[in-house]
Specification:
mainly alpha, minor pseudopilin epsh fold, three-stranded antiparallel sheet, Superoxide dismutase [Mn], mitochondrial, EC 1.15.1.1
Length: 230
């Protein structure tokens, strides 16, 4: 009973930290529109995968997140701590799915519109400083992402010390859970690549760099650095 009480207390503290955010939510989350057509990322990612990934998988995370938050707010109104704790994992998982995919869509752009092109600037300088070249960075990201056991994400992040970092997260966990700011995410769930690459996920990891929207990644980097300086 003592162990159970301690576990509940820990979870309750996590809920309490997030309740100020959840308590202010009165509008439902929605799936963001894409900035490009479903077929723009071909042949790297097919229109079929994009439509399924965006319209079905992301939409499911959003629907489940809205339901979980409504139930959480109802439990909160009743001061039902156990009920809030029971919903925490659903909010974390579906909320992470929503946030991670929202970043992912922005991280992508077709080759004809600049995909894969890293221009001069602070981010490129930092990549060269820490990794030597963009090619070296991509090898690090691909290596760590390919090593994920099960489902998850590979990330280029800015860590709390202001350095670039390559990390992985399981399932739909977010880099913010370990204090990192996400700059670039690579979805390593099977639904992100299987229809195009079958079980050869390393080809997906290799090819996705052709459609990375480095302008978006660079802006995230600049914004994150500015936040640290402030």
């Amino acid at each position: 009973m003592l162990v159970a009480t301690r576990t509940l207390t820990t979870a309750a503290k996590q809920i309490a930290r997030s309740s100020s955010v959840l308590g202010s939510i009165r509008t439902k989350h929605t799936v963001p529109d894409l900035d490009y057509d479903y077929n723009e990322l071909e042949p790297v990612i097919s229109a079929k995968i994009m439509k399924l990934h965006h319209d079905k998988h992301h939409a499911t995370y959003v629907a489940n997140l809205n339901v979980a938050e409504e139930k959480f707010l109802a439990a909160q109104a009743k001061n039902d701590i156990a009920g809030q704790v029971a919903l925490y994992s659903a909010i974390n998982f579906n909320g992470g799915g929503h946030v991670n995919h929202t970043i992912f869509w922005k991280n992508l752009i077709g080759e004809k519109n600049g995909g894969g092109q890293l221009h001069e600037g602070a981010l490129k300088q930092k990549i060269i400083e820490q990794y030597g070249s963009l090619d070296q960075l991509t090898q690090v990201v691909n290596g760590k992402t390919a090593g994920i056991f099960g489902s998850g994400w590979g990330w280029l992040t800015l860590n709390p010390k202001g350095q670039l970092d390559v990390i992985t997260t399981a399932n739909q966990d977010m880099p913010s859970s370990v204090g990192h700011v996400p700059l670039l995410g690579v979805d390593a769930w099977e639904h992100a690549y299987y229809l195009d690459y079958n079980n050869v996920k390393v080809d997906y990891f290799k090819n996705i760099w052709r459609v990375i929207n480095w302008k978006d990644v660079a802006k995230r980097y600049d914004d994150a650095v500015a936040q640290i300086k402030n």
